[in-house]
């Protein structure tokens, strides 16, 4: 049809724009189950859209990043975090000649497996599941797209391409889990997977600073003593003179993202050339990470992460949230194990196939913060309407 760009033309344009080490959608190893090709979209674009439209993605809107979401609409959730990672990853991928659509799909899916109440909830479920195969959010993200989401007749999961599923599993080191053997353990991760992991760090460092300052848990004067923030503030004050303190904070967040992204691009190009990486096969032969930051920026970033850990993530108010997560999740887990009929019928059926403990973990991990609290009140405070 005249004036309409077909999938074949999109794939041709994609191949022309990507460097040799960028993953082309036409080179995909395919899906678990046969599937007809889309007339307009590449396979990676199609995967991105399947992820966006799945239930687990929508639930990220009410899952904690650092602060429990009912605290206020200005704080990040898992959903806004995932969108920020996707935005940064697309921008950097374009500069590196990598596949933006693959990066976006992986970024949007990388946190699907997170429990309610952030890492706190995941830590509790991990402890409760120690004797039953464990719990780790990257593995849970893969389990969701492979097994728990049901959108197609005769098929469990979203039937995503191999490369998206592999990158969900391999985007974060160290690689763990029995499923790893099914994804060619001898092969290193695609550069797109490595990029999402690094952009994940850029996103949460920057927005955790923003949320920490807004919440009052971080003190600006202490933050500004860090080496990286001295550089960032100097750049902001050079560009924008006479702006308010609050506006300066906002511009510093954007400048921090730009600073880290630029170093990531510069150093990664240098590494690619040093390792003589030209093709996807060259990428898969690398067991160590290819992409990364320069030694100077790695040191600055480590100082920043240490600061956030000491001043934000271990703050007593955050610990109070962690304790609430422990109470809610331990209570729900024990109650569902004792009486599985408290779960929806489909989970009762899945328990016969997947085992009771794993199914209970699946059910709780899929809850939003608000739903977990409501369920807890329903079970343990029957007079609360």
Short note summarizing the structure:
The chain is mainly α. Helices cover about 60% and strands about 0% of the residues.
How is this structure best described in words?
The protein is globular and about 60 Å long. The chain contains 18 helices and no strands. With 385 residues, it is an all-alpha fold. The protein has one domain (7-34, 41-318): Hypothetical protein af1432 (Orthogonal Bundle), CATH 1.10.3210. Helices cover 62% and strands 0% of the residues.
Shape: globular
CATH homology-level superfamily: Hypothetical protein af1432
- Structural Rg: 22 Å
CATH hierarchy class name: Mainly Alpha
- Please report the distance between the alpha carbons of the first and last residues: 58 Å
Question: Could you say how many structural domains there are in total?
Answer: 1
Topology:
Layout: H1 7-17, H2 43-52, H3 55-59, H4 78-96, H5 100-109, H6 118-128, H7 137-148, H8 162-170, H9 191-215, H10 220-223, H11 227-239, H12 245-274, H13 280-284, H14 295-313, H15 316-338, H16 345-354, H17 356-365, H18 369-380
Helix pairs in contact: 2-5, 4-5, 4-9, 4-12, 5-8, 5-9, 6-15, 9-12, 9-14, 11-12, 15-17, 15-18, 16-17
Notable characteristics:
single chain, Hypothetical protein af1432, mainly alpha, 62% helix, 385 residues
